[in-house]
Amino acid sequence: MSEYEAITADTGPEQVGLTFLTIAHGLRGAVDRHMQSTVGLSLSRTKVLQALATHGTLHQAQLADTLGQAPRSVTQIVEGLERLGLVSRTDDTDDRRRKTVSLTAAGSTTLTAAEEAGSHVLRKLFGSLDPQQLKSLQASLARLDTALAD
Question: pLDDT band at residue 8, thresholds of 50, 70 and 90?
Fold first, then answer.
């Protein structure tokens, strides 16, 4: 019996949920490792660049809110991205205690490469499912998303 078969022997909601969380954690790790090894950018850092690409220039507090993360965590990520030249931080003209964060041209280029690296892993892993399995999984995930909103 494989490790996966052992953890999926029970098909009750709780066990399936725990299996899902375990696999989701593994998927996140696989994407993160591939992105770091090919582009040198973690998934967490990529999410910051994505938020800036989507929303434009933001104050660090707005960026933290957008990402649903603690301001200190975002500050540390932004500082690292700034050292790499992927974002720029400037003092707010109205309040010098606030920092404004912008995506640089290098950040935009790196973001594109990071997103492609992440997509590569997802295509590989989810490509192991046949079209009907993908459709069924998508329907199940949509149902779980709806249940979360209730």
Answer: low
> Cα separation of 82 and 86, whole Å?
6
- Domain extents in the chain: 3-149
Q: Return the residue matching tokens 């994505």.
A: 50
Tell whether domain 3-149 is in CATH 1.10.10.10: yes
β partners of residue 103: 87
Asked if pLDDT for residue 1 goes beyond 70, the answer is no
The whole-angstrom separation of Cα 132 and Cα 4 is: 21
pTM beyond 0.85: no
> 77-118 pLDDT, tens per residue?
999 999 999 999 998 888 777 889 999 999 999 999 999 999
Using an 8 Å Cβ cutoff, are 115 and 31 in contact?
Answer: no
Q: Spell out the SS3 assignment of the chain.
A: CCHHHHHCCCCCHHHHHHHHHHHHHHHHHHHHHHHHHHCCCCHHHHHHHHHHHHHCCEEHHHHHHHHCCCHHHHHHHHHHHHHCCCEEEEECCCCCCCEEEEECHHHHHHHHHHHHHHHHHHHHHHCCCCHHHHHHHHHHHHHHHHHHHC
Dihedral sign for Cα 46, 112, 60, 40, please.
positive
